[in-house]
User: Which sequence fits this backbone?
């Protein structure tokens, strides 16, 4: 998910108040280019890949107790998807706010999203078709209903697609809201969603379904543009949110198997992810180029393809093992998982890089022509 479906380089700066000399000297927190957020995206996709490599589908009882506990920590990697959601809300809301007065607001937004999302997504669906995934699932995925396929009696055949469907639903609703409501109204609406979402998750737990919407990133984007806090004030706000999230975190972890725990489990993580993004903005604002991590930026650049393809590579590796095409090694299971991560992860990174260069970038270059 994710170099995008947008890029941190696309967000344009917001005007700074010029009432004091300090404000005139201080660069804005939201800038034309924010490579620190590409690094955050890189962290998110690595979290998801580690989750699938060390936790997803694992029988932890086969591992010694210490190793089993270490593998349980990889569960946190699934929250990389939530980090993508929070980052998506922040960046997309910024783009929409910057363009809300343009006459081509909707046309520009949807053309740019289509050019970013559809090429690699279409390749993924084609690959799923080739390997024999249910036509019903592929058909619903074409309509971005992968997260709702159980409602149609169709199993979610490729799990990573559900999050893309959730984002597409966000793209359908949020641009309409940003265009037609004031920033203060949107802030209130985002705050309401943040407060109501745990209640909806509690109700969903009671009826055994999973629904919800993360608006923390959107709230952050609106907050920065509406109130334009200086670096010191924003740092204090982020520190306060960090204290709140850490205070909530143990409760969410310890009670996640109850209805209340299911409702609150991800709340502290979403707050923490806002802290991560906010801290990234502060670091990038203060130290600029010196704060960049090129390796994480690389993973951020290829993150959309890596997110889409990596589970196919892991599943293909397991198929080859089960068919005896690849010989199983009689080695320590933990070492085996590490080798699998290095082999499958390396192949997935290579595929994602090729996808970015030869499938995605030709379409991205059309943005300046079709939706400047």
Assistant:
């Amino acid at each position: 998910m994710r170099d995008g479906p947008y890029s941190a380089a696309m967000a344009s700066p917001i005007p700074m108040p010029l009432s004091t000399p300090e404000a005139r000297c201080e660069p804005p927190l939201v800038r034309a280019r924010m490579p620190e957020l590409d690094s955050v995206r890189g962290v998110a996709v690595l979290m998801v890949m580690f989750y699938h490599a060390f936790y997803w589908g694992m029988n932890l009882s086969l591992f010694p107790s210490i190793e089993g506990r270490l593998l349980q920590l990889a569960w946190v990697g699934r929250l990389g998807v939530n980090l993508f959601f929070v980052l998506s809300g922040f960046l997309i809301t910024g783009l929409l706010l910057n363009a809300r007065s343009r006459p081509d607001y909707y046309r520009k937004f949807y053309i740019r999203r289509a050019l970013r999302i559809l090429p690699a997504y279409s390749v993924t669906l084609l690959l799923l078709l080739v390997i024999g995934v249910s036509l019903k699932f592929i058909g619903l995925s074409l309509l971005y209903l992968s997260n709702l396929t159980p409602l149609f009696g169709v199993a979610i055949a490729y799990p990573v697609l559900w999050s893309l469907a959730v984002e597409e639903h966000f793209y359908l609703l949020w641009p309409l809201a940003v265009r037609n409501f004031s920033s203060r109204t949107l802030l209130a609406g985002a705050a309401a969603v943040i407060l109501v979402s745990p209640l909806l998750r509690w109700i969903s737990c009671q009826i055994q379904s999973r629904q919800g919407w993360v608006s923390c990133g959107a709230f952050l984007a609106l907050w920065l543009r509406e109130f334009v806090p200086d670096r010191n004030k924003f740092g204090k706000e982020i520190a306060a949110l960090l204290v709140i999230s850490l205070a909530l975190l143990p409760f969410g972890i310890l009670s996640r198997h109850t209805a209340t725990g299911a409702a609150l489990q991800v709340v502290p993580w979403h707050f923490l992810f806002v802290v991560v993004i906010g801290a990234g903005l502060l670091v990038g604002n203060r130290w600029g180029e010196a704060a960049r991590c090129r390796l994480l930026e690389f993973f951020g650049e290829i993150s959309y393809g890596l997110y889409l393809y990596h589970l196919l590579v892991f599943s293909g590796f397991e198929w080859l093992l089960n068919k005896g095409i690849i010989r199983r090694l009689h080695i320590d299971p933990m070492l085996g998982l590490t080798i699998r991560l290095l082999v499958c992860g390396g192949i997935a990174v290579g595929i994602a890089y090729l996808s970015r260069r030869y499938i995605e970038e030709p379409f991205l270059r059309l943005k300046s022509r079709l939706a400047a």
About this structure: Residues 2-7, 9-23 have pLDDT under 50 and may be disordered.
